[in-house]
Amino acid sequence: MTASGPVFPARIVGIDIGGTKTHLRLEGPEGRRDRVLPSQDWRKRDWAFDATALIGLVTELAAGDPVAAIAVGAHGCDDGAECEAFEAAFLPVSACPVQVVNDAELMPAALGLEHAIGLVAGTGSIAVCRDSAGQMHVAGGWGWIIGDEGSAASLVREAARAVAHHLDRGGSEDDPLARRLFAALEIPSPARIGSRLAQIGSAAALGAHARLVFEAEREGSALAAKVVEDGGRALADLVASLEARGVRADTVVAGGSVIVAQPSLWKAFSRGLEAACQGRVAARLFAGAPVEGACFLARRRAALGLAGHKAPAAFIDMAAKANG
């Protein structure tokens, strides 16, 4: 946990729940505090449990001091109903208003943009936009087994598929992508490519190996270069899908661990977006911490003056425990 930064007029908390880690940030009169922890350490994918657990983390971060508003960007809240269900779960346990959005919505919020498309390419991938009526529109986010193109897990999945097809056509195991895939995933023989992916079994565990695709690309593998190009184009297709469904946005803000860290994926996405949308949608890369967007939303909620409802007993109990 760290404490630094400017003085803020109201104490708020922004939370970015990613597929791999959760980032909480408190901004208040005492400055700024951050805490980052693995999402699996507290999250059970049960609305009531997760809401209570998050309020406990917030109480610890704020050292029991009152918070004016909380905003949460949650990986896995992939439609409006899920965001509303998670938000409702905070009502019995939170002493302040809580807003819940999809984690992709944090990137445009961090830049202060309204009605822009947020695109995540990290552990998973998804594109999200709210229209003028506040309705949530989503493309992608189907999970690594059938979708999440351009995400860390999907890139490894597609690399394995590319290598398998390459070998079927008589290609050599000496291709940089094949060599790196076999080494990183400890694949004992070509016949075990698919079963090894199944054994790994989770997006986070599989996605942890995504760098091998980019390393192979830099080593000159045409197979890896195509995997990256296809991944970038698939991310652009998410934006085009929203546009085809009537979503009107002139900007997409992309972020996430993979697209920020890997320039070749960003370039492939930019090329794909230009081809798919013919310049109608501008691409911006957000390289900051998505929790900045959650803090923006929490500050806005606090400014509305919606705080002040009576603290529930559960929150009072947690605050008392936090203060010893």
Précis, in short:
The chain has helices at residues 47-61, 80-89, 106-110, 152-168, 176-184, 193-200, 203-207, 211-218, 222-244, 257-261, 263-277, 291-303, 313-322; strands at 2-4, 12-17, 21-28, 31-38, 69-74, 98-102, 117-121, 125-130, 136-140, 251-255, 282-285.
Topology:
Layout: E1 2-4, E2 12-17, E3 21-28, E4 31-38, H1 47-61, E5 69-74, H2 80-89, E6 98-102, H3 106-110, E7 117-121, E8 125-130, E9 136-140, H4 152-168, H5 176-184, H6 193-200, H7 203-207, H8 211-218, H9 222-244, E10 251-255, H10 257-261, H11 263-277, E11 282-285, H12 291-303, H13 313-322
Parallel strand pairs: 2-5, 5-6, 7-10, 10-11
Antiparallel strand pairs: 1-4, 2-3, 3-4, 7-8, 8-9
How many helical stretches? 13
Please summarize the sheet with the most strands.
6 strands, mixed
Shape field: globular
Count of the domains: 2
Strand line-up of the largest beta sheet:
1-4-3-2-5-6
CATH structural class of the largest domain: Alpha Beta
Going by helix content, strand content and strand pairing, the class is: alpha/beta
The CATH homologous superfamily of the largest domain: ATPase, nucleotide binding domain
What value does the Rg take, in angstroms?
A: 21 Å
